[in-house]
């Protein structure tokens, strides 16, 4: 889980299946990352900062990629490692949950 990511802007991207608008977020915690190789397709969620502890989690979207030119590798990724080339970024592109559900003709069920 990667925390403290702030949405900066939106971008039109093409994931090979078509173009869509994605949110672009940035990791503000020094030395931390926003996304790593293998995170694509993973959930993006928000946490309500309830008092005294978080009480609600919201489905915000699905991780797509990181913007071209923002990738890092090796020790720049910190203590996390994957079985591939160990690439990561402080930037992340993710689709919104409504766009994901619409484009995949899916339904989100919550308890």
Task: Write structural notes for this entry.
It is a single chain. With 111 residues, this protein is mainly beta. It contains 1 helix and 8 strands, in the order E-E-E-E-E-E-E-E-H. It has one domain. It has one helix at 97-104; strands spanning 5-14, 19-27, 35-36, 43-48, 56-65, 72-73, 87-89, 91-96. The protein has a 5-stranded antiparallel beta sheet with strand order 1-2-8-5-4. Strands 3-7-6 form a 3-stranded antiparallel beta sheet, with no helix packed on it. The longest helix has 8 residues, at 97-104. The relative contact order is 0.25. The model has no long low-confidence stretch (mean pLDDT 82).
Question: How do you describe this structure in short?
Answer:
The protein is mainly β.
Features:
5-stranded antiparallel sheet; 3-stranded antiparallel sheet; 111 residues; 7% helix
State mean pLDDT (0 to 100 scale).
82
The best one-word shape is: globular
Order of helices and strands: EEEEEEEEH
Helix content: under 10%
Please, how many domains?
1
Low-confidence stretches: none
Distance between the termini: 22 Å
Number of strands: 8
Show the helix and strand layout.
Layout: E1 5-14, E2 19-27, E3 35-36, E4 43-48, E5 56-65, E6 72-73, E7 87-89, E8 91-96, H1 97-104
Antiparallel strand pairs: 1-2, 2-8, 3-7, 4-5, 5-8, 6-7
């Amino acid at each position: 889980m990667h925390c403290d990511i702030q949405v900066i802007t939106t971008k039109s991207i093409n994931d090979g299946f078509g173009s869509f608008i994605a949110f672009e977020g940035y990791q503000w915690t020094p030395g931390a990352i926003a996304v790593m190789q293998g995170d694509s397709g993973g959930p993006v969620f928000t946490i309500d900062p309830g008092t005294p502890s978080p009480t609600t989690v919201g489905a915000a979207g699905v991780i797509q990629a990181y913007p071209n030119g923002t990738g890092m590798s090796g020790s720049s990724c910190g203590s996390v490692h994957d079985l591939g080339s160990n690439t990561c970024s402080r930037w992340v592109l993710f689709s919104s949950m409504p766009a994901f559900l619409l484009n995949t003709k899916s339904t989100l069920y919550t308890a």
